[in-house]
Amino acid sequence: MIEWIISDSPVAYEEAVAWMEARADAIARGEASEAIWLLEHPPLYTAGTSARPEDLRDPDRFPVFETRRGGQYTYHGPGQRVVYTMLDLNKRGRDVRAFVSQLEAWVIATLATFNVTGEVRAGRVGVWVARPDKPSLPDGTPREDKIAAIGVRLRKWISFHGLSINLEPDLTHFDGIVPCGITGHGVTSLVDLGLPVTMDDLDLALRASFAAVFHDRADPR
To answer: What are phi and psi of 200, to 5 degrees?
Structure first.
C-alpha cells in the first residue's frame, strides 16, 4: 500500500527535501510504506546535477537551491502540482530508465484525462504538448511547449524527488531560467491550454492514472 499525502499550503523546499530523505531512509529500513506527496512550493528555482550556470538567467529573481536530483534548472511555484515519489525500486525492478518511463507514462495518462496529448521527445526531458496554434520555430520545427518536468534521485534504490505538472503557474516565472536547458520551445499549463482544471481535479486524475500505470493500490489516507 502507498500512502498519499496532500499538503494544502506551500511547503518550503528545504523542508520538503529533508522530509523526503528521512522517508526514503525509513522505507529502505523497512520502517515505512512507500509514499506519494502532492504539494506546491513558493516560487523558487532548483538546479539539478546537470545544471549549467549560464542557464540561470536571473539569479536574483527567486531563491535558487542546488539539488542532487537529475536534470538541469527547474522552476517550482504556486499553481504547479509537485509530485514527490518515494518508491522502492528494490521491489519494482532496479531499472532507472524503466522507472523514468513509467513516470512519463503516468503524466501522459493524467493529461489524457483532460483530453491533452502529452508526448516525450528524444533528447528533451519532460512531457511536451504540440502547439499548432503558435508559429513554428525559425528552422521550421513545429512549436512544442513543456507542461511537465521530471527529475529523480535514488538512494539504496529508493526514489525521491519526482515530477511537476503545470496547472496554472505564472508562466513568466520560467523566464529567469532556461528550463531544463532547452531553448526555442516554450512552457505551457493546463489553464494556458484553455482548460478550467482545478488542483483537486488534477490530484484525482493523478491517483487514478498511477494505479493504471504502476498497477498499485493506494492507501486512502
So the answer is: -60, -40
- Amino acid identity of residue 210, one-letter, is F
Find the catalytic residue in 180, 187, 197, 206. Answer: 180
Alpha carbons 109 and 208: distance in angstroms, whole number: 9
Place of cell 520538503: 16
Length of the chain: 221
180 is catalytic: yes
Does pTM surpass 0.85?
Answer: yes
Kindly report, residue by residue over 140-177, the tens digit of the pLDDT. Answer: 888 899 999 999 999 999 999 999 999 999 999 999 99
Reading across the β-sheet that carries 73-76, which strands appear in turn?
64-66, 44-47, 73-76
Distance in angstroms (rounded) separating the CA atoms of residues 72 and 102? 20
Helical segments of the chain, H only: 13-28, 89-92, 96-112, 199-214
Residue entry with cell 529500513: 29
Characterise 188 by phi-psi region: left (phi > 0), alpha (psi -120 to 50), beta (else). beta
